Amino acid sequence: MRLKNKVVIVTGSCTGIGKAIAKRCVAEGANVVIHGLERDLGEALVADLGADRSVLHIEEITNEQAPQHLVDLAIATFGKLDAIVNNAALVASSTIQTTDLALFRKVLDVNTIAPFALLKAALPHLQAQRGCALNIGSVNAWSGEYGLMAYSVSKGALVTMTRNLGDTLHREIGVRVNQINPGWVLTERELERKREQGFADNWYTTLPPSLSPAGRMLLPDEIAAAAIYWLADESGPISGQIVDLEQFPVIGRFLPKL
């Protein structure tokens, strides 16, 4: 029970990586606040985890009061807050030609500003528990990707925020901030995106070695397993760190289009 009696907010946890992290947190002894936009999926997850171990909040993460609503719900339901996981993200296909200012601002709002806002709202409670924040970024923060211009920039900004706050908050009030950067993960949303792009349903089974040296993609449960270390006390005083979770070195590697 690596998270016994801890209380964790996981944004974007009705599906994908966030869902896997929330489930693993409960398995490790934590109580969790589930967040997202898909009420039916969120309610099903709470039913699976147990209403005594989880609670659901449905709201767009960029709403001005959403961070405070999440924090207030954690305190009202479980009495404290030990950690937050900033997982909610907008993955929007765009190049410089197709990215207008409205789209760019929307991506930054979800992927960079919302994590800052939640951390700021949670800070007094994290300080009281000497807790932590875990940001879920992307390897695109380092290398970018064709067709994910705005998304890659937003994740690069998240890296800088993690480095900055991971140092200052740790020094000043004992709150650790770290980040994991997943590579290509086989989530429900990724399956939907590829289906919308015209790919066959089994596209992920025939990936070239250049894209999946292991012969398969990363799975949400594998990201969740890594997340637990950063949320648990066993990560000790480590703060301001960025860890890439991918099958191959990212920086400088040429990748063909799928």
TrEMBL record:
Q: Which Pfam families does the UniProt entry name for this protein?
A: adh_short_C2
- Describe the family membership recorded for this protein in Swiss-Prot or TrEMBL: Belongs to the short-chain dehydrogenases/reductases (SDR) family.
Q: Please give the Gene3D superfamilies that the UniProt record associates with this protein.
A: NAD(P)-binding Rossmann-like Domain
UniProt protein name: SDR family oxidoreductase
